[in-house]
Amino acid sequence: GALLVNERIDREELCGALSPCSLSFEIVVENPLELYSGTVEIQDINDNDPVFPSSQARLEISESVAAGARFPLESAQDPDVGINSLQTYQLSANPNFALDVQTRVDGSKYAELVLEKELDREEQRELNLVLTALDGGSPPRSAHVQIHIDVVDANDNAPVFNQSTYKASVRENTPSGTLVARISAYDLDDGPNGDIVYSFSSHTPAKVRELFALDSATGELRVKGQLDYEETKLYEIYLQAKDKGAVPGVAHCKVLVEVVDVNDNAPEVTVTSVYSPVPEDAAPGTVVALLSVTDLDSHDNGLVNYVNDNAPKPSQESYDVYVLENNVPGIPILNVSATDPDLGRNAHLSYTLLQGDPSSGHLFSINRENGTLYLLTSLDHEDQVEFSMMVQVQDGGFPPLATNVSVSVFVTDLNDNAPMVLYPHPNTTATYTDVVAPGTPAGHMVTKVVAVDADAGYNAWISYTLLQATDPSLFSVGLHNGEIFTARQLREDDAPEHTLVILLKDHGEPVLSTSATISISVAEMVKEVLTDLTDVAPANDPRRHVTFYLILAVILVSAAFFITMLSVGIFKCYKWRQSKELYNSSRSTTYRTPGPFHHIDAVRGGFTPPSFYHQVYLTTDSRQSDLLCKKPFTSSPLGSRQGTIRNGEPGLYHQIVGTASRLPTPAE
């Protein structure tokens, strides 16, 4: 039972930086049959010196750097572990710098130069220091590196990171090129002194540089190599930002990258002992073989179960179902089928509907036992054309295995919507009148019928035909665009008013249709149809008396203004005569002129509608005053022609000179 060493053991070759380093073995004891596990721990001895990446290090430090600034130094590497690994650093004596030894999360050491006394380039242009790395062995082993520091004139402002520590987590199977973190620094300087270049700090291990890449311009840290949770769970990455000045300013930050375990290791089955042949009279329960299963993953990913190794396999990975709109609720539209090669409970399948679209939750249901998908309500193609969902097929094993199947339901269109007229609007009592001048030649477009159909495809294709007209030979309508043209030149004996009824039909099955009525007036000038437009206005239109109210308001305001001006004239005549009498009698008096300006807000009576506002601006020394009438603009549904006519109604603006007032003509 003695355990012997067959060859020389090198702990660093076997385990690298892992501690403790152990080798496992198993022992089988027979009669009775038992299985024992054993572990040999390989202890470390101090047989390796610390090693720096290079024998010399060069730093450029600005003389403007304040005391307390830190400068990371290249770390030494010692493959030994525990007390035999790298323990501390020492710096040669100097008046300006001190050494600060820091400990990483994994316990490794690194050193930073700390400026205790500000540098003066005029006093000393360069410094030479010696950095010594010591391990904890007895006696300790050491390594040295020469540090040459150039003191130069520097940038006034160094880059500054927006945070000193960044944290990120990535899965161990993350592909190369995936963004891990984006560091950001700013520099208050201008030009090259403010341009920032990102890079790894000098003491970043080579292994980290192999696994991660840093964009020097954007500061994006991306995966470069293959991460392995089982090898390293956390990376502590030190980065720096430099500007492009003659003496670049430097800022440092730290990125902590946590590696998240994924189930990337399959269980390994080891057959420890096999008994063969087996006697034909072997009793039930006789041991035939001993199996051991291990999994390198962690937590749940490393748990191993024996049983249910086949997931349900659907007959199709996805289904496309087409349903006519206006369907009968409750109809089955699809049967999802799947198989499972396992036995018993592991092969019992159940079907669950995973909601895709939020709107599909109350529209569909599935039979849990046989996978039949039902449509619970009537669908409308104009409301929604497509529904997407997932059906999960799960077996009865423990833990259960499941497979998802994609289902897309497309609603096909039926011709259930008639064309809808947008112009002329069908839901108004006003008549849409278009005007065409006498003598208009053939081919002149008078107006256009605008319509839409809520259906899709061929069902929404609208055709326009002239159903009825006062003179069918005078106008024609475009079959597909609804444009109304003159079919011939207008003559003097043509009727002055024409009514057209346009029939709009779609091309569905069955055909659905609607109609639109167009009124066309033949007139030389727009003012000739003004009376007609007024006649066709609805009887309950409150705007039909607007012109009357405006004329009445102008007359009343003019009368008030006349009375006011007459009163002012009498008053000024009285003052003139009084002044003349005083002058003739040689009596001195002080003549006081009235104020230069008076603002009178008048004519706000109840005889005008509340939407009108009248102001009279009067002066005691001027013969001219202005009357301003304001009216809010009201859009007209009859289009641009009628809007132009109605906006020209009297009362928009009147100017009164002296006591005379003038009313605008209808054309104005």
Could you walk me through the main structural features you see in this protein, from its secondary elements to its overall organization?
By secondary structure, this protein is mainly β. Helix content is 10%, strand content 37%. Among the domains are: 11-42, no CATH class; 56-152, Immunoglobulin-like; 160-260, Immunoglobulin-like, CATH 2.60.40; 313-412, Cadherins (Immunoglobulin-like); 420-522, Cadherins (Immunoglobulin-like), CATH 2.60.40.60. It contains five helices and 42 strands. A hairpin with a 7-residue loop joins strand 37 and strand 38. It starts with 10 loop residues before the first helix and ends in an 11-residue tail after the last strand.
First and last CA, distance: 124 Å
Question: Share of helix among residues?
Answer: under 10%
Sum up the overall morphology in one term: flat
What's the CATH superfamily of the domain at 420-522, by name?
Cadherins
What is the overall pLDDT average? 80
Main sheet record: 4 strands, mixed
Number of strands: 42
Assembly status: single chain
Count of discrete alpha- or pi-helical segments spanning 4 or more residues: 5
Q: Which structural class matches the secondary elements?
A: mainly beta
What share of the residues does DSSP label as strand, in percent? Answer: 35-45%
Low-confidence region ranges: 526-539, 586-668
If you consult CATH, what is the topology of the domain at 420-522? Immunoglobulin-like
CATH architecture of the domain at 420-522: Sandwich
GO molecular function, one term: calcium ion binding
InterPro entries: Cadherin-like_dom (IPR002126), Cadherin-like_sf (IPR015919), Cadherin_C (IPR032455), Cadherin_CS (IPR020894), Cadherin_N (IPR013164), Protocadherin/Cadherin-CA (IPR050174)
Domain Cadherin: 1-52, 53-161, 162-269, 315-421, 428-540
Protein name: PCDGK protein
